[in-house]
Amino acid sequence: MPRLSFTLALALCVGVTLSACQQRDAANQDSDASKETFHAANYPLEVQYDASLTRVDGEVSSYFDDGGWQLSDDTPGDRLILLELPESDDVATALWRLGASRDTEAVDHCLTLPANAQAMPTKTTLAGEAFTGFTLGDAGMSHFQNAEGYRAVVDDTCYAIDLIVQGTRGEVYDPPRQPPFSSDEAMKRLRSISDGLSFTGK
């Protein structure tokens, strides 16, 4: 009788363990299924990001930004990917942008801060590389923009990551409107996208 009880207990234990493993495998599959991966065509990097984010293609511009490859877009470069928080609307939009350039002038001035930008006190490590960071805020004609920028030169290439929250102040509407998120909340979510950046072949 004791031997039978031990055998039954062992079978139950194995069953529970197998079930737990299957649940973990299913959870991992669900997690992988909720991700998208962007591979840059001409640069050795990729970005894994949440599938709920909206990928923005084509020409994009706003009151403060011409939609180029970086803030202060005055040199040739490539806008690689632009992601938008799905709640974004005409009151407030939150964007994560990755750009790159091998243009000599762009590389030489890659770490030069835009006008009126405030340097972050320490470098930020992204994908194993040290990025120079800065913050920037602007406002005008009821419009606003808050931005964080990160710049690094890797293998003679300037990489630019810009986190942008911009829009129109809600009180100018009649009746007043509430933005879909606060600037702080949006920035926190945009920063998490940078965690999915990786340089391939390193």
What's this, in brief?
The protein has helices at residues 2-33, 104-108, 183-194; strands spanning 35-39, 45-50, 54-55, 78-84, 92-101, 118-119, 124-126, 129-140, 143-153, 158-168, 197-199. It is of the alpha+beta class and 202 residues long. Strands 3, 4, 5, 6, 7, 8, 9 and 10 form an eight-stranded antiparallel sheet that branches. The chain has a three-stranded antiparallel sheet with strand order 1-2-11.
Number of strands: 11
Helix content: 10-25%
The parts where pLDDT drops under 50 for at least 5 residues are 1-30
Q: On the 0-100 scale, what is the average pLDDT?
A: 84
Helical/strand content category: alpha+beta
The helix tally amounts to 3
The main pleated sheet reads as: 8 strands, antiparallel
Fraction in beta strands = 35-45%
The separation of the N and C termini measures: 60 Å
CA radius of gyration is 23 Å
Q: What is the general shape?
A: globular
- Run of helices and strands: HEEEEEHEEEEEHE
Kindly describe this structure.
Strand 9 and strand 10 form a beta hairpin. This protein has 3 helices and 11 strands. The longest helix has 32 residues. It is globular. The chain is an alpha+beta fold and 202 residues long. The N terminus is likely disordered. Strands 3, 4, 5, 6, 7, 8, 9 and 10 form an 8-stranded antiparallel β-sheet that branches. It has a 3-stranded antiparallel β-sheet with strand order 1-2-11.
Primary descriptors:
8-stranded antiparallel beta sheet; 11 strands; 3-stranded antiparallel beta sheet; alpha+beta; 202 residues; 3 helices; disordered N terminus
